[in-house]
Amino acid sequence: MSQSIIAKRYADALFQLGKERSKLDQFETELLTLREVYRDNNKIVSFLKHPRVSVDQKKKVMTDSFQSFSEEIVNTLKLLVERHREDIIADMIQHYIGMMNDAKGIADADVYSVRELSEAEKQRLSETFAPKVGKQSLNLTNIVDSSILGGIRLRVGNRIFDGSVSGKLRRIERELVSTNKR
């Protein structure tokens, strides 16, 4: 079974538990903090994967390091350590965050522009494009790309909205080429 499927199952279980105990937002906050710890500290990952460190030592580090977290999150982490599934923690967090975003009607999107967009511009883009993809809002990540020449290109999941100058030029070129072949 693939690691991603296993990570999704743990995320589903945490999501259901959070729903039952009305702790969905608390779990999300804690998992976002854990994701930052994982990203910023490579030593914890290598420690958890080290074969000479016993499972009990790893579980103790998890308990001590995340003592301010909810019991459910800490127990999930200890369970993952016990089952030698430390490498799926990041994927599990990503699946949980995705489930929370779906529940809130939020989607992640990349917006490509020639320059950095202001918060007001990002907000307008979110308000304009969120309904088009069936969401209430978009978490926009602005990527500066001078090759688009002007305008924007927005990617939400596998949907692309291309209002860039370079995209328009490509469409015009395709039209010209296709009319010349006739």
Write the layout of secondary structure elements.
Elements lengths: L2 H18 L3 H17 L1 H8 L5 H11 L5 H12 L6 H16 L1 E8 L5 H11 L7 E8 L7 E5 L2 E4 L2 H17 L1
Parallel strand pairs: 1-2
Antiparallel strand pairs: 1-3, 3-4
Distance between the termini: 51 Å
Percentage beta strand: 5-15%
What is the arithmetic mean of pLDDT? 90
Total helices: the number is 8
Sheet with most strands: strand arrangement: 2-1-3-4
What's the CATH architecture name of the largest domain? Answer: Orthogonal Bundle
CATH homologous superfamily designation of the largest domain: N-terminal domain of the delta subunit of the F1F0-ATP synthase
For the largest beta-sheet, the strand count, sense and barrel status come to: 4 strands, mixed
CATH topology of the largest domain: Peroxidase, domain 1
Helix/strand structural class:
alpha+beta
Q: What's the alpha carbon Rg, rounded to whole Å?
A: 22 Å
Number of domains: 2
Order of helices and strands: HHHHHHEHEEEH
How many β strands by DSSP?
4
